[in-house]
Each structure stands twice: as structure tokens, then as C-alpha cells.
Amino acid sequence: MTEYVYDFSHGDKDAKDLLGGKGANLAEMTRLGLPVPPGFTITTQACRDFLREGRPPESLADEISAHLADLESARGKKLGDAQDPLLVSVRSGAKFSMPGMMETILNIGLNDESVEGLARVFNNDRFAWDSYRRLLSMFGKTVLGLSGDAFEGALEDAKRAAGVEKDVDLNADDLRAVAAASKRIIEEGSGRPFPQDPREQLAMSVEAVFGSWNTERAAIYRRQERIPEDLGTAVNVQAMVFGNLGEGSGTGVCFTRDPATGHQGVYGDYLVDAQGEDVVAGIRNTLPLADLESLDKASYDRLLEIMSTLERHYKDLCDIEFTVEKGKLWMLQTRVGKRTAAAAFRIAGQLVDEGLCDLDEALRRVTGAQLDKLMFPQFDPNATRSPIAVGMAASPGAAVGQAAFDSATAVEWAKEGRDVILVRRETNPDDLGGMVAARGIVTSRGGKTSHAAVVARGMGRTCVVGVEALRVDPKHKVFTVGGTTVDEGDVISIDGSTGEVFVGQVPVVPSIVDQGLTGAQAGEPAADQPAQPDLPDQDLLDAVLRLLAHADARRRLGVRANADTAADARRARRNGAEGIGLCRTEHMFLGERRKRVERVILARSDEARAQALEALLPLQRQDFVEILEAMDGLPVTIRLLDPPLHEFLPDLTTLSVRVAVAEASGEPDEEATILLREVSQLHEQNPMLGMRGVRLGIVVPGLFILQVRAVAEAAAQLRKAGHDPRPEIMVPLVATVQELEVIRQEAQRVIAEVAHESGVELAVPIGTMIELPRAAMTAAQIAKSADFFSFGTNDMTQTAWGFSRDDVEATFFPQYLDQGIFAVSPFESIDVDGVGRLISIAAWEGKENHPGLMIGVCGEHGGDPASIPFFEEILLDYVSCSPFRVPVARLEAGRAAVMNPGTPITAGDAASAGPERA
Length: 918
Fold this sequence. Notes:
Elements: E1 5-7, H1 16-31, E2 39-42, H2 44-53, H3 60-75, E3 78-79, E4 85-86, E5 88-94, E6 104-108, H4 114-122, H5 125-143, H6 148-162, H7 172-190, H8 198-212, H9 216-225, E7 233-239, E8 250-257, E9 264-272, H10 276-281, E10 287-288, H11 292-295, H12 297-314, E11 318-325, E12 328-336, H13 341-353, H14 359-365, H15 368-373, E13 378-379, E14 389-390, E15 392-395, E16 398-404, H16 407-415, E17 420-424, H17 432-437, E18 440-443, H18 451-459, E19 462-465, E20 471-473, E21 478-481, E22 484-487, E23 491-495, E24 500-503, E25 508-509, H19 512-522, H20 538-554, E26 558-562, H21 566-574, E27 580-584, H22 592-601, H23 606-630, E28 635-639, H24 652-664, H25 670-682, H26 694-699, H27 703-720, E29 726-731, H28 737-758, E30 766-770, H29 773-777, H30 779-783, E31 788-791, H31 793-801, H32 805-808, H33 813-818, H34 835-849, E32 854-857, H35 868-873, E33 878-881, H36 886-899, H37 907-912
Parallel strand pairs: 3-4, 16-17, 17-18, 18-19, 26-27, 26-33, 27-28, 28-29, 29-30, 30-31, 31-32, 32-33
Antiparallel strand pairs: 1-2, 2-7, 5-6, 5-7, 8-9, 8-11, 9-10, 11-12, 13-25, 14-24, 15-19, 16-23, 20-21, 21-22, 23-24
Helix pairs in contact: 4-5, 5-7, 6-7, 13-14, 13-20, 14-36, 19-20, 20-36, 21-23, 22-23, 23-27, 24-25, 27-28
């Protein structure tokens, strides 16, 4: 029979799949002998069974009863006893941390009788009624699904009646009234009174936590963080300890290092006379953790000892929740803490220096996505600016946008293409949509461990919290600071590194790390880059460069860049690119040059076409001279023209109107009429699947040959000048080997002619872009006539899925993502099961039939941190990406090499083992 419940004394930190992250770490702290209130964990399997069947597993109630009896025995109290009640908390705890996304209920076991017993035991009426009103509010919102505004309103009414501003200033009678009002809200809102049976409270709370796995906000968070939908959450039932017993008690959250910067020190928040949810909810402004030393030195010193123990045990930054009950310190939770990208790199380097991990492990601790976030802009340090208010720096970066005072407005404006700053008193999980949409978040309440701060750091959003000077009025959509008023739609700027808030738009400059990476690769400022001053975050830059260097030493995958100009090529080289994997020549024919290509395509005679081609040759040759010179000594893969045909033809509608107007005026335009007839003959209903790529090169004589000659002449010119050009010619959109052979034969003839004419030996590899399913499935044949393959994953995704990217991303993709059909857009991260399987088959069959065949990927997936591990697994030779993402690809390629060496996929695996392997 399946065992669904485990005591904290059974399990450890490695049991997260079964016990969830919180339960596994509670078990680990118990095993270490730390002061953990006893309890038990209901497993993720119980949650999955509950969600599948719509009811708890049959044996679950009996298991809970048995473990509850053990807990009662250990504490010497009975759940909800009228004289001396045991109270418990019920908390969610999935395998992966999802802060604020699921549910917590505290003080279960209180009812109209036991609240009096609790008051007598602690000789504290106020504490007892404060605890009861908290249970009623949490139970009403979480278990019964009632609006939290009603319970908040009851508390606000009591404060107005008592003439106080803070919750802690309410007395026992005030809180008794709040509890009575809360019970009325529950009965009126749910149609039933608050359950007085403690076991019923517990059972309903457990089911509510299970159900919270499927709430909208939890689903949004999982999609954002790419957490699988089928994991479920564990439920932790734990004896209550109380931080709301007066001045000698309190609750807090701390970090063993600063999660925003990575700097070492004492970081965290503490609230006197509070329960844990007060800290993370951000409803009261917190004290710095260091203040605990003056309030309760013994607890403070013991906490620092435990923080050190946990960090050295986990060998990482730890996030810790604790409560002090009348001078006794209790540990409620620990986990490896979420951190900003800057903190991740700093901490990884520190742990290496401290001997807690080696460089391979440090590389595992950071991600390409985090490095990507370090490319955040910053405010121009030379700009004149004066903050209107300063809060806590919760998540770094510079963000500028229009102030929006609710999540729905932020989402709507972002869809319209506006930059938005979400302004709230405090955020709650229902604000997640707006937080995702916003450029930055600012709150007037809360600390560095509030909901806004934790979620923003995890998402890489700029965030400032606890700006006490802000008077936020969400009803009227305005905030005021002193004499300054900011209405919805006004532009504000926030600095997540300093906590400053500005009215208006502050000028932004590129990130320091981005500038530093560029300078570090170049050794000195490039001709097109200004000299950089000494970098204030040199230690961060050093940590990034150190791990990038180790990634370069460990990675097998090469990293090239997609670059179409000499400036792009120089940028790519400075960022560490080892060549160009895709030079798109159609981008060289924009503006005035477009008409020249049009003349080639619409030429009415061989002579006219030859003249048009001759005019293009020197322009193309100079383009290639500049790019090859910029990448001297490194490979440059030049893709021959691959635009949809209509991009190089006059617009059919405009031309039709021109002809019609001319005829209506009685003065027909003969030239336009002839042109319309020619364009109409070439018009296509679906240009992306029409006359483009290799088809254009075959049907329009001389077009590809012009480009091949320009490449060869540019290479010959540079070789004569003492350079080392390494061009490669890539034929696009090949579907059958015969197409490649036609172009290859002609290209080799032209290259040989140029070599003979120039007296320079030229060796120019000729390969193809694999971007059609048929090409992938016939790769064994194509490989025999190709020197290399490069996977065009953008078009392969379109053709494998039957998608028109320009259409689907704006139509049904949002619904597919919302409904979980896609965890992520297949254009963003590689579809391993479908497109990935095609790539696997083509790569392995290509190499089997052409040993030494070079194989890379040049679609946008080449720079995607989530896709690079797959390309490593199937042993591609290189990835190619935007010049700006080259450092990300280098880092992720190194991580892929050390994370999962595994067994590479073979052609047989790809063909027969099914999508779970391919």
C-alpha cells in the first residue's frame, strides 16, 4: 500500500520529489538537530492522486490520524483541546519553490472554546484573539475561496473604531470584534458557519492546499518558471510556535548572503509580535535583521550560528524562515535561496574561494538565463536626476515606464506595446500577471522578503519595495510623495539597485557587465566603442569572466554568431564568437539595393539580367571583404539569398491601383501594365513556401553565381593582402540532394575560375541549411554532397508544426500557453520531441554517411539557454546566435558539458526510441 505521510524525522533534503522542497528541508534540519517544531509531511503523490480522483486517497485520513497522534504525544497536547490546545499550520511545499503561489493556513485547531483555553495558557487574551482572527481570515480566503478584501475591511474597521493605525495597537476586545465579524463574513459568504471541529478544519485545509496547485496564479508561475504541471505539491502539517506573543516574540526571514547582490553580511527582515505571513505579505514594514541583536541577543547569536551551519551544509545561499517565541528560537523553513543574476555569479565565485565547491559546481550554480539578465541597462550615472523617494532595493536594473496601479491595466498596456511600471501598496499572488507584464515594480510596503521582492528577483524584474513616502491610492489611481502627484499613465523611473524612484524618464545606458565583457574580449576599446571607465562592479565582472573562462575550457560545443555586417561581426568577435554561423545576404539588399535585385528577377532578356548582375557584383564583393576581414582567421558561413520572392518585387496591390488609375484617366501606363503582368505571374499565395532559397537560385540564372563569385573574389583579395579569410557557402531551403548538386557544381566552377584568375588557392566549403522536414529525413543522401549542415530551426519549426510564425504568435499562441498546450513557445525553446527528433536523425545520419561533416545550428534556438543542452546531447559541433547572446551561449555550452554528460543520442535512438529520448 502506498505510504502518503512521513514524519519530519524520516527523510532528507534529497527527497524533494516525494516530500516537496519544504518537507525535505524540514526533515534535513530535523536530522541536523536544529530546533524545528515537530510535524509531518503529506506527499506529492497524495496530491497527484487527489487531483486525479477529485478526492483524497482512501488511506490518507487514517495515516494523518496516526501521525497527528504522534505529534500530540510529542507536544503533550491535543489538537483544538479546549483547555490547552495544540495548534498546527498547514503549508504547501512543491518540489520547486513557488513563493506565494499556493496556500498556507496558520493556527488550525482554534475555535470558540479553544481560543479561551489558549488565552489562559499564555495569560494573553490579545494573542489568542489575534491568532483566531488570523485563522478565520486565512481559512475564509484559502479554504472557502472568499475575497480577502472583506476580512481586510473588518480589520481596517476595527482600527478606525479604535483610533489606531497599526494592527499591533489593537487590544483583545478589538480583535475579538474582528473575529466575530470574520465569522459573519464566512457564514454569509459560504452559506455555512466556520467549522468548530479541529479535525474538519485540518482535513479541509489539506484539500485546499492540494487544490491550490491548480489555481490560475500557480499555473502562471509554473509557465513563467517552466515548472512541470504534473508534479503536485506536498503538504506540511507542523506544530505552531508563536511570534505574536508580545515584545519578546517575533518572526523573520533571513539569508546567509544578500540575495540581491551576493555580498556577505547579515541580511533579512524581522517583525516583533508577528506571525510569519506578516513578513512575506509585506503588510507591515520590517526591521533589518541586525536589529534583532539589540532586541534579543541570545536568539540573534543562535540564529547566526544556525545560518552558518546551514550554509556550510547546503554549500549555498540559504533562505531561512524563523520564529522567536518568548526568547526561544525555532526554525520553520530553509531552502537554497532564490537570488538575482548578479548574486548568483558573485556567490558562485565566493563559494569556490571558500572551498565549498569547485569550478565545475560553480558553473552548475549559474545559468545562461541569469547571464542574459546581467545585460540589464542601468541609469546613466552622468544624468542629472533627483529621486522623489527611496525604498529598499529588491531586484536590480533600471526600469522606465508609465505608472499602472493594477495588474489588469499593466497587462493591457503591455499588450499595446507600452512600457509599464506596476505601482502597488503591496503585491499579492493575484498580481502575477501584471508583474510579468511590467518592466518594473514598486511598492510602498514590504521588505526584501515580501512577495513583490521574491517574485521580482525570480523573474528578473527591476523592483523597489517599502517606499514608505509613497501614498498609493489604487482606487483613484494616483500616488503622492510630499507635494508631488503621479497619476496613472505618468512616466516614472525606478532603480532596483539603489531603491530610488524618479518622476519622468531617466536616461539609460548599457549594463556594466555587458560593457565589461566587450572590453575583456577586445583587450582594448574597439574603434566603434568609446573607452570605458573603471567599472564599479569589478568583482561581479571578475566572477562572470572567471566562470565564462571555465565554461570555455569545459565546453565541447563551438559558439558562432549570426552577423550580417562588419560591425556585427566585430561585436560578435569581442564577445567571444569563434566565427559566423549565419551571414544572411538578403539583409545586404535593403533600401536602394532592393531595386537592383528586382531588376535581376524581372529582367526581360539575358543581356538585361547580365547587366543587372554586373552592377551588383562590386557591392557584394565589398560586403564580404568587410565581414571576412572582421572575422579574419575564423569561419564565416555565408547563406545565399533566401528571402520570400515578394520581398524583392513591387507591391502587387500598389501596382494594380497605379494601372487602374492610369486607365481610368484615359492615359494608360504601358510600363506599369507590363510590370503588373510580370509581377502577377510571379505572385504567390504563400511566399514562405514558394520561390525562395535554392529554388530562386535555380530559376533565376546567375543570381547565386553572382554571390559565389563575390565571395570568392573577396577571399582572393584578402589573401593577397596577407589575411586569412575562411568563407563557407551555405545553400538555403534544400529539400532534395539534386537541388544542392546543381548549385554546388556551378559554385565549384566559379570558385575555380576566380582562383585561376587571381592566382590564389581557394578552398571554400559548400554546405546546406537543413530547415525542411524532408531534408532532415533524407540527410543521409544530402550529406554526400555537402561539406557541412546548419540547422535553420526557425523554418524547421514552422514547417514541422505547420505554423506561419508571423500569424500564430499573435493569434492562438496565447491561448495555447494559457491552457498549457505549450509550456513555452516552440519558437523560443526547441521542441525536443518533434523538431528535435528531426534534427537528431539528420545530424547522425549525416555524420554516418559523411564522416567529418561539420554540423551546427543557426536558428534563434542557438542562443536559447534551454535549448543548448539538447544540442550538446546530440553532439552538434557548434551553435550560432545573436552577437549579444554569444556570452550566454558560451556559458550554457560549458554548463551542458558538466551538467549531464550522459549517453549521446544515436541515429538509431532518434529513429526508433521515441520522443522521450530524441
